[in-house]
Design goal:
Length: 413
């Protein structure tokens, strides 16, 4: 295995790919060698590596949110969150604001020309590479070569290790009845020919199922899941009416099952850097863009909390604002979808439980729960509040109404 002490100095910064593209053998080797290197800073995104829930004390972990095992690190008070839109990551790397002395990548096997693909994890990795002093790669025989981003020669890496291991698959839970009800309402907000951005998880999975009767949908998203390829194979997602990249599914990463990873080569999927997928100038050209994002809570003004629960980072701003703002301003519509309750408490709240506002009220066109859709575009604050109360869980509506009346009587409160 690689001797990282030759490549790093105390105080240096490291970054690596996220999710199934995380080069775990390299990360584990780095963690094993920490006591011989000294203090380091690391920037990472989503990780399922359990060792990162309790890394060596010499490692300071930075991230754009508390995703996967980083939630446990956040609970322990050891996660340093960098609040930013996902579209800002390329600029932060370019300015040296994020760790960039060493980059760890997982790549595909080399082709006949000796070049490798970034595979299913292009996103911020492609934008960080030009600003990174040293690169080290895990060449995984099971990482698919993907199209859309320039390949790298093996000579770009200071060191390489070769593996043959399955890519991690995203945890899967089948949608339940509540999520299917929400998805049915969301599907009513999508027109034939629209271009979609959706997140990952069981609720977005239910939305994909609910869209099976639509035609000529397009996809431009930060991540894609199995549901996207399923709709491509059904002839629902064709991209025929996309204003840019017609006929193509554009994404920065894939997050799903082994079937998804194996099937990418047989479908018109293009992997692009975050500087393209999330760029406001690019998104503004998608006049048909419908952004569907989830949340932890929404207040009666329409403000969205998607990061913090009970004082702990369990989510991220991510690309939510990038896509929500574009969809609302220059696209078709911005949708926030969530269950009306969580743990018995209402997710439609008089005020957000956290002081952190992820998405502003002006970037949300509709809020959807299993009880219906609250259309917010053009509505006054009073109208917004009433419409949001109407889609809250019935057992919480009276309390929300009383809080609304109380606030109108005492504006200073």
């Amino acid at each position: 295995m690689i001797d990282f002490a030759r490549l790093l100095r105390p105080g240096d910064g490291v970054w690596w790919g996220q999710g199934p593209a995380e080069p775990e053998p390299l990360v584990d080797a780095l963690l094993d060698q920490m006591d011989g290197i000294g203090p380091l800073r690391a920037f990472i995104g989503l990780t399922w590596n359990p060792r990162l829930a309790d890394p060596p004390p010499e490692l300071t972990v930075l991230s754009y949110g508390g995703l996967g095992e980083l939630r446990r690190l956040a609970v322990a008070g050891r996660l340093e969150v960098v609040p930013c839109h996902y579209s800002a990551l390329p600029r932060l790397f370019a300015r040296g604001a994020l760790p960039h002395d060493l980059g760890l990548l997982q790549v595909s096997p080399p082709d006949v020309d000796g070049t490798v693909s970034l595979g299913i994890g292009v996103e911020y990795v492609a934008d960080a590479i030009p600003h990174t002093r040293t690169l080290v790669a895990e060449v995984n025989a099971q990482m698919p070569a993907t199209a859309g981003t320039a390949r790298l020669p093996l000579s770009a890496f200071a060191a390489v290790v070769y593996t043959d291991r399955p890519l991690r698959e995203a945890p899967v839970r089948a949608p339940d009845d509540v999520e299917r009800q929400i998805a049915a309402h969301v599907a009513e907000l999508v027109d034939d020919g629209d271009t979609l951005q959706l997140g990952v998880g069981s609720l977005p999975g239910a939305v994909f199922e609910a869209l099976a009767g639509h035609r000529d949908l397009g996809v431009h998203s930060g991540m894609i899941t199995d549901g996207v390829l399923d709709l491509v194979e059904r002839g629902v997602v064709t991209g025929a009416r996309k204003e840019i990249d017609p006929g193509l599914v554009v994404t920065g990463a894939a997050l799903g099952s082994s079937s998804l990873y194996r099937g990418l080569a047989d479908h018109p999927v293009r992997f692009r850097a975050a500087s393209y997928t999330h760029d406001p100038a690019v998104l503004s050209r998608l006049r048909s863009l419908v952004a569907v994002n989830s949340a932890i809570e929404v207040d009666l003004l329409g403000q969205v909390g998607a990061e913090v629960r009970r004082g702990v980072h369990v989510g991220a701003v991510g690309g939510q604002v990038d896509f929500s703002r574009a969809a609302s301003l220059t696209g078709a519509r911005s949708v926030i979808a969530l269950r009306s309750t969580s743990g018995g408490a209402s997710t439609i709240r008089a005020q957000l439980g956290s002081p952190v506002v992820s998405t502003g009220r002006v970037d949300v066109d509709a809020v959807v729960t299993e009880h219906g859709t609250a259309h917010l575009t053009g509505a006054t604050e009073t109208q917004r509040a009433r419409r949001l109360v109407a889609v809250a869980a019935p057992e919480h509506r009276d309390e929300l109404t009383r809080s609304l009346v109380s606030r109108r009587r005492d504006p200073a409160g």
